[in-house]
Inverse folding.
């Protein structure tokens, strides 16, 4: 089975690795870390859970072949490793977000925003970040 770091890096690469903004990739990474911390599940379990990350819908991680020498993948792997060991909550840019949405790729009709609170908005990044309303 693939290790946590590898699956985390692949998820970042496919979910946000094409972004021109490193803050976007880092924000997606911290959203995944927040899910891991709240659930006490592994990165592998969180990243490959059904219908959670579009990059794994209808795909098995073991079937993915990627050139790990690609600069963008190596960057995602370094960021994944950094986020996994980061223990400073004040360095988490997503303020407890557990969900994110890319308006360029997703249909807003597929989301129920009434139960969500947007926690950050940065016009320079591709994703919007949310947590459940309390």
């Amino acid at each position: 089975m693939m290790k946590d770091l590898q699956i985390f890096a692949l998820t970042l690469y496919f979910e946000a690795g094409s972004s021109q903004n490193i803050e976007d990739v880092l924000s997606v990474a911290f959203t995944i870390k927040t899910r891991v911390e709240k659930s006490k599940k592994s990165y592998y379990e969180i990243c490959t859970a059904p219908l959670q990350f579009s990059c794994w819908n209808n795909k098995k991680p073991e079937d993915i072949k990627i050139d790990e020498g690609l600069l963008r993948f190596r960057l995602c792997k370094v960021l994944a490793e950094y986020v996994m060991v980061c223990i400073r909550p004040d360095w988490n840019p997503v303020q407890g977000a557990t969900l994110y949405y890319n308006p360029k790729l997703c249909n807003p009709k597929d989301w129920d925003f009434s139960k969500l609170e947007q926690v950050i908005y940065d016009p320079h990044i591709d994703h919007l970040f949310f947590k459940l309303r309390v």
